[in-house]
Amino acid sequence: MIDDQNIPDRDEGINGYQKIDRYNPELIQNLSASYLDVLKQIGENPNREGLLKTPERIAKAMLYLTHGYDLDARDILNSAMFKEEYSQMVIVKDIEVYSMCEHHMLPFFGKAHIAYIPNGYVVGLSKIPRIVDVFARRLQVQERLTNEIRDCIQETLNPIGVGVVIECRHLCMSMRGVQKQNSVTTTSAFTGEFLKGQTRTEFLNLISSNLS
Ligand SMILES: Nc1nc2c(ncn2[C@@H]2O[C@H](COP(=O)(O)OP(=O)(O)OP(=O)(O)O)[C@@H](O)[C@H]2O)c(=O)[nH]1
Ligand SMILES: [Zn+2]
């Protein structure tokens, strides 16, 4: 068991996550040492040529794959909101999602489809995939990822409604565990106008060519 007593007090960063300097050489070195230990414990020989730099590579990869902890999605949306009298649904679909499940730290990946109905302001289109990444590049469950994206857009942009649909394959369900190769998990979250049948149906129809 890990001794919680040895975990230093959390220096709280954005949204209560611990603030770390992801590019600090000492941090990379410590994390590499941990992965060196992992290699030994799974029965590998960390001294063979192919593995010599692997602990450091994994350390850097893990720090990259969790860099969403450092970013504030609300700041990103706030930085590109424009007054505009467009009042129809705006949909950005087929946004690639790469995240890691918090249970096994294995990837889950797929697509997000996001819509909102403006209420006086629109947001720079690229910011929507950007906030997907902010929340996806953390340890996640798909349901929370879906809700966090919805809440961020609703609370920042204050639109008439938000719709989020995410469909992903979870490697923890395909390469291990239950070993189902073809299952896709779909989650959704709505606010405002999207809670009404007609708007939700319109959104789901417009993205339905993607849903399997
Ligand atoms: N709801 C939800 N569950 C997830 C997600 N990612 C992984 N899981 C599930 O988390 C659960 C963890 O269950 P446990 O029984 O504690 O873990 P386990 O023994 O490794 O379970 P198996 O995967 O069934 O072998 C598993 O059922 C996973 O499929 C996710 O995004 N959302
Ligand atoms: Zn998992």
Automatic annotation (TrEMBL):
UniProt superkingdom: Bacteria
Keyword Kinase: no
GO biological process: one-carbon metabolic process; tetrahydrobiopterin biosynthetic process; tetrahydrofolate biosynthetic process
Gene Ontology CC: one annotated term: cytoplasm
Keyword Disulfide bond: no
Reactions mediated catalytically: GTP + H2O = 7,8-dihydroneopterin 3'-triphosphate + formate + H(+)
Single Gene Ontology MF annotation: GTP binding
UniProt keyword list: GTP-binding, Hydrolase, Metal-binding, Nucleotide-binding, One-carbon metabolism, Zinc
Boundaries of every GTP cyclohydrolase I domain copy: 35-207
HAMAP family registered for this protein in UniProt: FolE (MF_00223)
Family in the record: Belongs to the GTP cyclohydrolase I family.
Protein name per its UniProtKB record: GTP cyclohydrolase 1
Organism, scientific name: Mucilaginibacter terrigena
Biological classification of the source: Bacteria, Pseudomonadati, Bacteroidota, Sphingobacteriia, Sphingobacteriales
Gene: folE
